[in-house]
Amino acid sequence: MSKATIYDVAGAARVSLATVSRAINNPEKVKPETRERVLRVIEDLGYKPNAFAKGLASRKSTTVAVIVPDMSRASIAEMMNGIADIARVYKYAILLYILDSEDSSEEDILKEIVAAQVDGILYLNDEVNARQYAFLQRIQNEYQIPVVLTNTIYPGHEDIPSVSIDYDKAGYEITKALIDEGRNNIFMVSTVRKYMVNDQKESGYLRAIEEAGLTPRIMRTSGRVSINTEHFNEYFKNHKVDGIVAVRDSIAVSFMNVARANHVKIPEDISVAGFQNTKYAILARPQLTCVDVPIYDIGAVGMRLLTKMMNQEPLSEAEVILDHDIIFRATTLKS
Amino acid sequence: MSKATIYDVAGAARVSLATVSRAINNPEKVKPETRERVLRVIEDLGYKPNAFAKGLASRKSTTVAVIVPDMSRASIAEMMNGIADIARVYKYAILLYILDSEDSSEEDILKEIVAAQVDGILYLNDEVNARQYAFLQRIQNEYQIPVVLTNTIYPGHEDIPSVSIDYDKAGYEITKALIDEGRNNIFMVSTVRKYMVNDQKESGYLRAIEEAGLTPRIMRTSGRVSINTEHFNEYFKNHKVDGIVAVRDSIAVSFMNVARANHVKIPEDISVAGFQNTKYAILARPQLTCVDVPIYDIGAVGMRLLTKMMNQEPLSEAEVILDHDIIFRATTLKS
DNA sequence: CTGAAAGCGCTTACAG
DNA sequence: CTGAAAGCGCTTACAG
Question: CB within 10 Å: which end of chain A, N or C, has fewer?
């Protein structure tokens, strides 16, 4: 462990501090015997280089900032696991920033991040707007800090690399699956708040619906479970529905609860599908058909991509799209 | 924003760098006019002190390490929100460490944390064992880095402060509630893996059961939903049961699914209760009776406690116990 | 292959 | 109230 400084090591190993530094960072530049002697002393003393001194002198921090909107969303949390696993492999520490609800603070946070001298930024906020995007561009261009959008899309721009699945395609496929079951009053249940990712799901839904000559119907609900119940009751009293594609599993489950309370049979009367394949989908009865988003992988690949950028390695693609699956379970006819 | 150094500010404001530093950190020691001039220049230049230089010179990092076992657990993620909100108020950055499954790496991580010069540590790993606890004690004593156990208990020790609820009491109360309904074959469904927190829940359960002269029955299941199903089927084929207290909401829901598949009525035949009051409890049908653990608050209070320790403020209590509620819903008779 | 020395950008006694 | 200077613990050309 620490407390010992590089001077202590140098003294005990009878070399200069420059040699100690080299033995750690450029072992090949040090004669094997010297290197081993130094390394042994390091071990004995439990020496760990002071991260501040190292960062100040080298101008690198081996730290990445991860910016998230709200940790309690299952997808964000699971992405963090993927990020952390890869960060560990490449020896990066993670500085975590959870955004406040008032996004005014975001620029402050970004300044702080610049001051913290992180080597890279992983941005997981899928509510990104034009102002924020411009700010990220500035950080990348002016300060040369690489940024990766993870499970976040900003359509029409490729200057900030991103990792995600093709949500438009997934939205299309899952909607098409319900159409193929013979459903023709298929609603998409999306969110009131604007998430880029949900926009993509919606556009895929619209494409499938229009292609089939059906009428698109998008209802927007708040994320809050308690409000959903009333909202659903009210809305579907006046609408004929035989298919539901929800942008999140939990919203799908929430809908199913309301349907059941109204003695609607699932999947006989209504097919239901969600997005994400969380535990909600598996614990639900009937078990939920949904798009399986490889969210852990998205985090892991995002972090890996960032390491490449931090090492100035060339990127084969600026927009990485991972494959997704659709898992058919008991809430759809084809199961 | 940054890139400008303290020298640039000093030059533009026509003062020495010492004065700039004071204007930022000890404003009262600087003449108001000078201070304002300096502050304006700082604003103009978008100056942000380099965090490494500051950390190196001051030997403080205004950074805390948060150590968690697995971010995807709903309780951990929600605690993070509480921690981050308070950290923001007190201007602390968060260095996040997600533990590997192989706990061999934990000591390495702790060394890293020491090297990173964090001002404090929040430890959220409720699987803490004797070796790890001893290590935390060393960090606290040898390196003077304060540690707070958050939603983590290590019974019989008070040298590391902790924040939690009284899980023993909660376990007792929820079990007692089922007993009062007239249930007398109440099982606790706990986990195979050893969590201190679950031990407490079990001990409360045992106390209530023994007090009532009933036979205690603790079954342990893996956390994995898929395995639970079979496990439950097998186990309860051979046991008479009219009450279930599960250590996690999701386990309770998982049990209910198996029960329903076997045409058992809830709550008529079996009362079911869980712990945590997550979204699982609310989305379940019937809605789940459970102990409401104020997990966001536990995180927030833990972080607040840590700030006090980092400021050398005296602690009024080393073991903070927050209040909990029991929310009676439709899976118990008393609802 | 190794050492002496400058420098990274701050803070903080110490004088004045 | 303000400035000059030392020092925090490293890295990295530059010599040798």
Answer: C
